[in-house]
Amino acid sequence: MQSARLTELAVTYGVNLLLALAVLLVGLWLSGWLGRRLDAYMQRLNVDVTLRSFLRSLMSLALKVLVIITVASMLGVATTSFIAVLGAAGLAVGLALQGSLSNFAGGVLLIVFKPYRVGDFVEMQGQSGTVQSIQILYTVLKTPDNKTVFVPNGPVANSNIVNFSTEATRRVDMVFSISYGSSIDLARQTLDALVRADGRVLQVPAPVIVVGELADSAVNFRVRVWTATGDYWPVYFDMQERVKKRFDEVGLSIPFPQRDVHLRTVAT
Description:
Elements: H1 2-44, H2 49-74, H3 79-96, H4 98-113, E1 121-124, E2 127-134, E3 138-142, E4 148-152, H5 153-157, E5 161-163, E6 169-178, H6 184-197, E7 201-202, E8 208-214, E9 219-228, H7 232-250
Antiparallel strand pairs: 1-2, 1-5, 2-3, 3-4, 6-9, 7-9, 8-9
C-alpha cells in the first residue's frame, strides 16, 4: 500500500517536474526569440540603436521573470508569497540604490526624448565633449583633450544641456582691437575683406562688423559671422592669425593696455 502511494506521488510530481522543466526551457528560448524579433522589427523602423538595446533587454527580463513565476506555480510554490517576496526585495534594493534608479530613470528620459545623440558635441554638468554612448546609467563623453568622462544620467535629465551639433550652422563671435590713433574706416574695410575672402563664411545671414566698444586703451570691433558647425573653430582660429598679419601690413596697430600716469612734484 505504501509502495503504491510512493509510486503515485513519484509519478505525479515527476510529471509536474518534467512539465515545469519543459516550460522553463521553452520560456527562456521564447524570451530570447521574441527579443531578437523585436530588435529586428525596430531596426526596420530605424529606431535608435541605444533605444533598441534598452527595450530588448527590458522585454527579455520581464519575460524571464514571468517564466520563473509560472514554473514556481507549477511546482506548487504559492505565487502570492513569491510575488510578495519579490516586491519586498525590490523595495529594499530600490531604497539602497536610489541614486542608480534616478540615473536609470534619467537614461530612459534621454533615450526617449533624445536631446542629444551619439556623435554630438555637448556641454552638460560642467563637462564638454563628444557623446560616445548613451548607457542606461551614464552618458559617456570624449573630451577634446581625449579624456573619457562618465556623466550620471539622473542629473543630466534634470539640468541644462547645450548641444552644439543640433543646428547645421553656428555664429562665430570675435573681437578685434585697434588703437585710438588708427583709422576706423580702414579697419572696417580690412575686416570686411578678410571675412569675404574666407569661403567658409556664409553670406546669408550677412556678416556683421561694428564698433562694439570704446575701451580704455582701444577701439574694439565686434565681428559676427556664420559658418557650418564643423568649421566653427577653424574659422575662429584662422581669422585671429589673418587679422593680425593683415593689420600689420596696412599699418593698423593693436594696442597694449595703457594707462596715463601724472607725476606731481611737491616743493620742500
